[in-house]
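To fix ideas, we now present one chain and its tokenised fold:
***
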Amino acid sequence: MMQDQDKAKKIVELLDDSANALQPHVLQKLEAGRMQALAKHSVAAAGHAGLSEVLSAYLHHHRLIMSAALLCSAIAVAFVVTQQFSGQDTLEQGDAFLLGSELPPEAFLDKGFNTWLEETSQH
């Protein structure tokens, strides 16, 4: 642990000595670069607004994708709703067909019925 701290102190001393040996015009450029970086950082920090603004910007940039997703969702919901209503009608019509048929309902359960139906429909 002490060795690491000693190494860190030596590195800091070497960096300070090297920084003191820099020429004044290099120091001025480094200071100007530091100030420019701080200015950009403060602008970026101020630009990070609330979640609503970030979400709004995201939706604005991706409005085509969002529109397509909304359209697909609406189509899917419409399909599910129509299937729900049409499925009940089909079951009711099937029951009415069985009860209103000239044949008894047991005839439709008979395994030989399909064969008889095919034979009679060919004639």
Remarks:
- The chain has a mean pLDDT of 79.
- The chain is about 85% helix and 0% strand.
- The two ends are 102 Å apart (CA to CA).
